[in-house]
Amino acid sequence: MKQVVSISLGSSNNNYDFQTSFLGEKFRIRRIGTNGDYDKAVDLLVQLDAETDAFGLGSVKLPPARKNSRLIDMAANFLNYVHDDSSKIAKLRSRLKTPVTTGDHLLNVAYEWAIRSLQFEYTGYFNNARVLFLSGMTHYRMASVMSEFTENMTFADPVIENGISKFMHSFRELDLYAKGAHEILKWVPSKRLTSSAVPIKKWNTHILRKAMQKAHIIVVPYHNFYDYVEDCTPEELGGKTIITTTAYEDRIEFLKNQGVDVIIDTTPKLLKRVVGVNVQEALVIAALGKKQHQITDEEMLELMSSTKTGLRPRLVYPSGKPKQMTRFAFVIHPLSQEQFKLEKAVKPFVNIPGAVDAVEKIVAYAPPWVYSKVTGIKSPTGAEAEGWLITVGGTPKQMMTHSPEFTYKRLLMAARMAKRLGAQIMGLGAFTKVVGDAGVTVAKKAAIPITTGNSYSASGALWAAADAVRRMGLVKIEEGKKINGKTMVFGATGAIGSVCCRLLAMAFEEVYLCGRNIVKLMALKESILKETPNVKLHTIVNPDKYLADMDVIVTATSGMGKQILDITKVKPGCVITDVARPLDLSPKDVAKRPDVLVIESGEILLPGDPKMKDIGLPPKVAYACLAETIVLVLDRRFEVFTIGRDIEWEKVKTIYKMGLKHGMKLAAISGVNGVFSDEDIERVRDLALEARKKLKPTPAN
Ligand SMILES: NC(=O)c1ccc[n+]([C@@H]2O[C@H](COP(=O)([O-])OP(=O)(O)OC[C@H]3O[C@@H](n4cnc5c(N)ncnc54)[C@H](OP(=O)(O)O)[C@@H]3O)[C@@H](O)[C@H]2O)c1
Fold it and tell me: What is the average pLDDT value for the chain, to the nearest integer?
């Protein structure tokens, strides 16, 4: 039977002695605590050398892990580095026949594996996350792997180890620091004079707290765990993910009390029984009968995967419920000058001729800024999302006045900002995806996945139209049958308009494709007929004479508020869905026809208890394109989803289904005067029936 002995400088109260089998061999595993007594540890090493196959050394501060650390004999490092008395052990070491390990190699393999497996299991888990390493040196290898998924890393080593009030912000900087070549280290001598000075200490504590507050993930060394976090409050740790090793119950309890959301425990588990990493690595050394430096990462990994739980990091949710937070950004912009007029700073100048025009022009050049944080989105699946509404300054008029590159430039600035904030995907709102090639260039150049949200906008618009038609009750809808009615789409050749045409062609017997370019309309007709041959399609550029026959109209142009359709010619009881932003139908137009139901496309009621600043919609309600961005993060689909003007029908179906899965609901349908109640709809319906009677007098009895 092989013998593994862990000599720990920790308490002897936790000693154990048991037998187990590993890789088909029998082992006796013992732990002997020396209660901090180095001489006793030395004596034990000598005494047990002859009868032991591998020693583990426990309760010691690990030396900094460096590149190629697996090639370094970490035990030797320990023996030379950690304690004044270590020289005794160092001298002794060369005389020992038995290998000695602190478990560092296994720990580093486990760190790497934990990050990679979480990233794989929960797609994009670490993408763009803001990660704070309290000791980058201890987690050098973890940081190296993490740098593949996020650039938002902060290392507190200079602040905590050297008392220098400066963080490092990239893996490259950590690398230089590890090699002793970082510029920051030149500050060290002066720090010796100043670090005990109270103002500097206070300042360092302050910046450390701020760094913790900004982080999504905090990596806490397992040695001296409490030294790193004991002064933290829920303000620093609340809602955070903590990565650590050997998360004992007391540590979990402590983190729970500070409101931590998730604890990722990267401790490797080669045995069912909980033993220290040094014991596990000593076991591997004894089992393989190799010298430490001959054991490769792959061998370590293979051994970890030979146990059922060895490869999976432990996820602890202190609240008892799984937490999966995802992050998005969404770009918005002012829809018209009217929005500027409401701004405090602009109000005094509203009546000065040309002043608002000037503001509109100037603000279009402004770099993007965060308008609102969005919190509280929670899917019934348990997935959660938070995000940022980033605004660019251009109104539709300004975006159309400049070249598309003008808007692309600002959208790419917004994408960089989104990435820095930690967003895993960015959506493009309203006109930002109308200009140029509808998101294609931005998606190509941005270092974050982009979606225009148009798949969900199209599906939302028709979702709302279907709901409104059903509630009006003027069109006969029979299960499994096409609707015997007529429908027209304005802006039919556009991104949203063309999908609406495709969807309506499946539901209605006759569809009128209305646009400005007959060639584009003919091409659209041909492609729809390939998918849906059993529909009557008409291509028109002069819609007026057909308006009186339409039961449903969808208008999705980028006409920027110009008059697109003459509402006075529309059939009484028609349902018009106005998808355009700015709207294609003004409140003045709508008021002309109280017998027509004009709804403002399909807005989406978000799941959970969402909070954000006013975006011109009722609380908890979002534009469908914003909702698409949110659905994608909730489903961990961090990918370019909808871009360009050829929206894929498959994606429209997919996002609709995904939306239902994540608790998205059609918001109460609304018009220019707000939400329509059942009474409002009843009134429109009565007026429509009245008007229809006048149009077609009932035959005399
Ligand atoms: N409600 C929402 O949640 C939501 C979401 C996204 C977008 N939107 C809005 O939906 C609208 C369409 O967006 P999109 O991405 O589909 O834009 P798009 O691909 O650029 O399509 C715009 C369509 O409008 C037509 N058009 C432009 N000016 C016109 C005019 N003066 N008269 C008649 N037709 C005109 C264009 O015709 P040509 O092909 O002849 O140029 C094109 O077919 C925009 O107003 C956008 O802001 C709303």
Answer: 88
